[in-house]
Amino acid sequence: MIDFPTTCGFCSCGCALYVEPTKGRVAALCPSANHPVSAGRLCIKGWNATPALVNDQRLRTPLIRKQGKLESASWEEAISATVSALKQTEPARIGVIGSAKTTNEECYQLAKLARDVIGTPNVDSACRFYDASLIPALLDTTGVPGSQITLDAVAAAGSMLIVGANVMEQLAHIGSRIQDAVENGCKVVAVDPRVSRLAPQAGIFLHPMPGTDLAWLRYMAKSIIDRQLYAEGVPEMPGFEELRASLEGADGARLEGECGLTAEAVTEAAQVMAANPPLIVMFGLGVMQQAESTRTIMALADIALLLGGQV
Ligand code: SF4
Questions:
Q1: Measured in Å, how far apart are the chain's first and last C-alpha atoms?
Q2: Rg (alpha carbons) of the chain, rounded to whole number
Q3: Average of pLDDT values for 139-163?
Q4: % of the chain surpassing 90 pLDDT
Q5: Which of 27, 46, 165, 299 has a CA 20 to 30 Å removed from the CA of 239?
Q6: Atom 4 (ligand 1): residue with closest C-alpha?
Q7: Which ligand 1 atom minimizes the distance to the CA of 171?
């Protein structure tokens, strides 16, 4: 019987699975049928998670540095040495660093340990670099500091704008919902400097020059407004006139030189999305790690709001 529940840590889909440990090895593995993300399925990385567990180079015990050399230790010894080191340090001088590879529950527990047990406010992780642009950009545009899109909404989308995200490879279960949507007639506009595995799903695949997303997004927003492709009621939304005025300089004639996309191609993509609601706008690290990432994410949110979609 396979009954040890765990979470795949290879990507932030966080699929649930069960493993059967036998004599220190994984004898069997199966996905959880009831999990809202994996729904009884794993991607190839999840199915092949077990070799990492039994790899010769995997750490099997904690290590403690003694006289300059790391030595194997028991968990009791390691935890006791950690507690004693923490007790000798002023809490405000202690930093706790988490990882994007841990589960939500582990991250929550780590923050509780830092704030409530150790008494330090210094909790950080690599997510700070991603969210540094995302949180203010979405707060300023949608009023919510994160995406509210559900997996069901992805599967039910009429169109999608996916920018700088190799979703099919990196987040396979979001990729599978995109595939479901495409099978139901969803039109995918993919935008990436390179061809990714999204290509078979994309009705339109645009390849701008790296780092130029803001230019074509501004032109796309102008095109939506000029051609009145926006959703009903959008001109009455707060900020509409300011947005329209801010796009005056978005010049279709200069677009190809600026970012490698023609004005016609960008307008055609906008028309396809406007004609196929509901729209889902997604983006990945290709956007979040640009120099202009905050403004680019705001421009993506503007496209979603103009067309009555979600980001
Ligand atoms: S999508 Fe694949 S890699 Fe990501 S958590 Fe699920 S099984 Fe693991």
A1: 42
A2: 24
A3: 94
A4: 72
A5: 165
A6: 11
A7: 1
Reduce the secondary structure of 3-28 to three states and give it as a string: CEEEECCCCCCCCEEEEEEECCEEEE
**Average pLDDT of span 209-216:** 96
Atom of ligand 1 nearest to the CA of 46: 7
**Domain boundaries, given as residue ranges, for the chain:** 4-54, 62-88, 90-125, 129-306
Closest-CA residue, ligand 1 atom 6, reads 15
43 lines ligand 1 (CB under 6 A): yes
Q: Which atom of ligand 1 is nearest to the CA of 43?
A: 2
Structure tokens at 192: 């990436």
Taking alpha carbons only, the member of 127, 173, 163 closest to residue 146 is: 127
Task: Give the Å distance between the CA of 157 and the centre of ligand 1.
Answer: 22
Domain 129-306 is in which class? Answer: alpha beta
Mean model confidence pLDDT for the chain: 93
Establish whether residue 98 lines the binding site of ligand 1, counting it when its CB lies within 6 angstroms of any ligand atom.
no
* Each residue's pLDDT tens digit, 1-13: 567 888 888 888 8
Q: Is the ipTM of this complex over 0.95?
A: yes
Instruction: Determine the distance separating the centroid of ligand 1 and the alpha carbon of 18, expressed in angstroms.
Output: 13
In tens, the pLDDT along 65-74 reads 999 999 999 9
pLDDT at residue 302 above 90? yes
Q: Burial, 211: exposed, middle or buried (Cβ in 10 Å; 0-12, 13-18, 19+)?
A: middle
